[in-house]
Write a structure and sequence with these properties.
Layout lengths: L6 E5 L4 H12 L3 E6 L2 H11 L3 E5 L5 H15 L4 E4 L15 H29 L2 E6 L12 H21 L4 E8 L5 H8 L5 H10 L10 H12 L10 E4 L31
Parallel strand pairs: 1-2, 1-4, 2-3, 4-5, 5-6, 6-7
Helix pairs in contact: 1-8, 3-4, 4-5, 6-7
């Protein structure tokens, strides 16, 4: 019961990381407001979670929808302790020289502006109560270049920057602000990219396991949900402005291949010499 008595709002809650976090949060004692544009899937999860959950339609490109999500948490459950800005898409894909401007703007609207609205309206209710945890989704593509499409990469870098800036501002109100940066995980979005079928989760697990630095271990939605749980809970009470990776070490150079100089060799010295003598 690590979230007992806490109230959370989650965007993109009808599938993937959002759905996994909703289930995890409720299992740990929280009540949740689920926001998504996938109406049937979102309502089904709310029904599954019973009295601990309520679903509202939420398009994160519309500030009023985010405001309503936050206000529903307050009106229905009495407060807001956790804001999880999770909604996302892959977005604009292709060479920088041919990316359509409207696709770029649409992607930014979801991946960055949606996070801004979430932070803004969470702060609106968390500042008066003097507490809260805001969590936003970045990506390994927000840490390194070349791991995602250009717009996705730019937005995920921006989420980390926004997280740091908002954390520095809201610390005076006892509000913590953090981000999560996962690698490709076994979700419908990654399955669609990897196989062309968003339902091919098991096949995606096999693909990810074969390419994971942690041998045979694919990344799962539950791994991200567990990271969100820690950041949402009081266990991370002295952590703010941090980006927590769930990437099997990819962003520190871990690969499926042995690292260079894995085997012992005598010390390398000047002019081709080796050893201490």
């Amino acid at each position: 019961m690590r979230l007992e008595g806490k109230i959370a709002a989650i965007t993109g809650a009808a599938s993937g990381f959002g759905a996994a976090a909703a289930r995890r949060f409720v299992a740990e004692g929280a009540k949740v407001v689920l926001g998504d544009i996938q109406l049937e899937a979102g309502q089904a999860i709310a029904e599954e979670l019973g009295d601990s959950a309520v679903f509202v339609t939420c398009n994160v490109t519309k500030e009023d929808d985010i405001a309503n999500l936050v206000d529903t948490a307050v009106s229905h459950f009495g407060k807001l302790d956790i804001m999880y800005n999770n909604a996302g898409i892959v977005g604009a894909v292709g060479p920088i020289a041919t990316t359509p401007a409207q696709e770029w703007k649409f992607t930014v609207d979801i991946l960055l502006n949606g996070v801004f609205y979430g932070c803004k309206h969470a702060a609106r209710v968390m500042i008066p109560q003097g507490s809260g945890s805001i969590i936003s989704m970045s990506s390994t593509a927000g840490i390194l270049g070349g791991l995602g499409p250009h717009c996705y990469t730019a937005c995920k870098h921006a989420v980390i920057g926004l997280t740091k800036g908002v954390a520095a501002e809201l610390c005076a109100h006892n509000i913590r602000v953090n981000a999560i940066s996962p690698a490709g995980m076994a979700t419908a979005m990654v399955a669609n990219v990897s196989t062309g079928d968003p339902g091919a989760i098991e096949e995606t697990k096999k693909i990810l396991a074969a390419n994971s630095p942690l041998k045979g271990r694919p990344g799962m939605a539950e791994d991200v949900a567990n990271a969100a749980l820690w950041l949402a809970s009081d266990e991370s009470g002295y952590t703010s402005g941090h980006t927590l990776t769930t990437d099997a070490g990819i962003t520190v150079g871990a690969t499926t291949n042995p690292i260079a100089f894995e085997e012992y060799q005598p010390l390398f010295r000047e002019a081709g010499k080796s050893g201490l003598e």
